[in-house]
Write a structure and sequence with these properties.
- The chain has 129 residues and is mainly α.
- It has five helices and two strands, in the order αααββαα.
- A hairpin with a 3-residue loop joins strand 1 and strand 2.
- It is globular, with a radius of gyration of 16 Å.
- The two termini are 25 Å apart.
Length: 129
Amino acid sequence: MLIEIDFQSEEALYMQLRNQIVMMIARSMIQEGDPLPSVRQLAGDIGINMHTVNKAYSVLREEGFVTIDRRRGAVIALNNDCQQAREELRERLQVMLAKSICKNIPKEDIHAMMDEIYGELLSENTPSL
């Protein structure tokens, strides 16, 4: 599992880890039923504290991306609760859009960025012929 942590970033380490795992799911690099490395293994591999990895896994569980089992560890198990996902997305988008308004980023640029990113994620999921 290729995880890269930016120790200079202001973003919390557990959120960087969580975000990268979510991106890997979106890109079909890991899929439903795939196990994640153990907390101890991943912490050792990327050089962070086990509690940080545990916190990232807990957030992923709360958000419906993984289940955590004593024997199997953390396993990708997507909770497809669309209503909850939409509410969470709306809350996060609201903050991001407020930031973009504060920085005077035009609405058209935001739409173009969203279309571009969405297209990139979809194209990464489409098998090549």
